[in-house]
């Protein structure tokens, strides 16, 4: 295995997750490159100690041992790797690509086939944990791929992950585990909104309701994190409604492809899609509560 | 306020919650009585240091400062207090009755009226936390009632509760908070079952899926607690499917009385009712997963 100070990795996609992962790679002593269309993000990473940053990663492709893809969806993964400025064509054979966007199993398999044509390894490796965990190098990674892919990406996994779950060898299993995780995350946000909406209707102070639930068996990670935004009346997006429209669509498509019913997740998809269509798509995902009519929600608190 | 060694309380209903609460009262130095139709439960509490136990609490009613009702539902509350062997008629005026069953706000108000006719105080005080918290004297209590009722029951609350939320003065608010809490608990169990069923369908090992979720943002208290039973193939009831048929019915009735839609909770009610009708009513509530057809679930593990 390469010594970490000679290991070269490029993080493509410097949003909150990608930026945290890239900084964790730098902190771990990896030679870290960054790529994003947003110049502000590129400058931030350059200031944090990246070897180089560019809107187009092809310029340093031939120096890389690994690429970590942290873009938003499958279309962006495919555009970066195989589009007009195809990165895959410039990477050295044997380079490992860790695909960490939330995508379908079918898309993961399609990308793996495309990478194999260039002699590239793939790890199907979605992540969870949010921006704070990413910044701390403690993301949860649910990964599937060959032993060779795991071995080649070990320095990156060590740098960015608190936990790595090795689901299996078959590409697509990582994607599926992430999608099932998102089923729970999405249903829990929607259920939190439904419960808080009912509390508002019943005249229960929402801060009290929040306190009770977060100290009892009805709590969820998402309730505790997102319903605080409702209590505070602050819908500044940490993660937007439209992310869960996308993710619950993936959940629903996965279930359709397996011929399997999902009574709760399909209902939650309906709630998020309705929230987006009502104009709340760019607000924090807790804004799904705004589709409940006939209630008075807390406004923004005075600072 | 009475010194604790002269404070007399009777716990009516010695199931897992009531037994824990009664033992906590004994541990706190209260003169503790117990009542239950089940002789095994009565003997257990007698052995743990109760002053007296009986199937019928009326025998020691005139010595009591407080009654803690931990029976299953509103019908049992009313039968104990106002039925053929009405306890309310034997309690001294000013005795406080803490009604901790999960009941509707309407039933709580009806019981308060009945108690007031006998000059008795009522605290509308449902609890949460499960058997382990009850045994440790650390239940979560969500209570509504007069200052007088809170004051009179303070020694009991100190003995049995880790947290006491004072929701307000109006009887029914405690019941409503508990019902909204149960909305979340029930939806979270059903969502956990749905996610694990999809994982089984997709060929994901359920122990891996459980590990991933419990270490990521898709976790809930109920997922972590109940889906372990699915992984272990053990449906020995800790809390039965029929409890959530009852509680999600209360949720649904509460929403109907407020003219409010609950897309997820009404779906979850459907899932639990279907599980009960399929013959799983007395199994652990995680057995709601058994209504998903076309999957292979883990069997009981070898010990």
UniProtKB/TrEMBL annotation, chains A, B:
<dbReference type="Pfam" id="PF14833">
    <property type="entry name" value="NAD_binding_11"/>
</dbReference>
<feature type="domain" description="6-phosphogluconate dehydrogenase NADP-binding">
    <location>
        <begin position="9"/>
        <end position="168"/>
    </location>
</feature>
<keyword id="KW-0520">NAD</keyword>
<keyword id="KW-0119">Carbohydrate metabolism</keyword>
<dbReference type="InterPro" id="IPR002204">
    <property type="entry name" value="3-OH-isobutyrate_DH-rel_CS"/>
</dbReference>
<dbReference type="GO" id="GO:0051287">
    <property type="term" value="F:NAD binding"/>
</dbReference>
<dbReference type="InterPro" id="IPR015815">
    <property type="entry name" value="HIBADH-related"/>
</dbReference>
<feature type="active site">
    <location>
        <position position="178"/>
    </location>
</feature>
<comment type="similarity">
    <text>Belongs to the HIBADH-related family. L-threonate dehydrogenase subfamily.</text>
</comment>
<dbReference type="InterPro" id="IPR006115">
    <property type="entry name" value="6PGDH_NADP-bd"/>
</dbReference>
<dbReference type="InterPro" id="IPR013328">
    <property type="entry name" value="6PGD_dom2"/>
</dbReference>
<keyword id="KW-0521">NADP</keyword>
<dbReference type="InterPro" id="IPR008927">
    <property type="entry name" value="6-PGluconate_DH-like_C_sf"/>
</dbReference>
<dbReference type="GO" id="GO:0016054">
    <property type="term" value="P:organic acid catabolic process"/>
</dbReference>
<dbReference type="GO" id="GO:0050661">
    <property type="term" value="F:NADP binding"/>
</dbReference>
<protein>
    <recommendedName>
        <fullName>L-threonate dehydrogenase</fullName>
        <ecNumber>1.1.1.411</ecNumber>
    </recommendedName>
</protein>
<keyword id="KW-0560">Oxidoreductase</keyword>
<feature type="domain" description="3-hydroxyisobutyrate dehydrogenase-like NAD-binding">
    <location>
        <begin position="172"/>
        <end position="291"/>
    </location>
</feature>
<dbReference type="InterPro" id="IPR036291">
    <property type="entry name" value="NAD(P)-bd_dom_sf"/>
</dbReference>
<dbReference type="InterPro" id="IPR050006">
    <property type="entry name" value="LtnD"/>
</dbReference>
<dbReference type="Pfam" id="PF03446">
    <property type="entry name" value="NAD_binding_2"/>
</dbReference>
<comment type="function">
    <text>Catalyzes oxidation of L-threonate to 2-oxo-tetronate. Can use either NAD(+) or NADP(+) as cosubstrate, with a preference for NAD(+).</text>
</comment>
<dbReference type="GO" id="GO:0016616">
    <property type="term" value="F:oxidoreductase activity, acting on the CH-OH group of donors, NAD or NADP as acceptor"/>
</dbReference>
<dbReference type="InterPro" id="IPR029154">
    <property type="entry name" value="HIBADH-like_NADP-bd"/>
</dbReference>
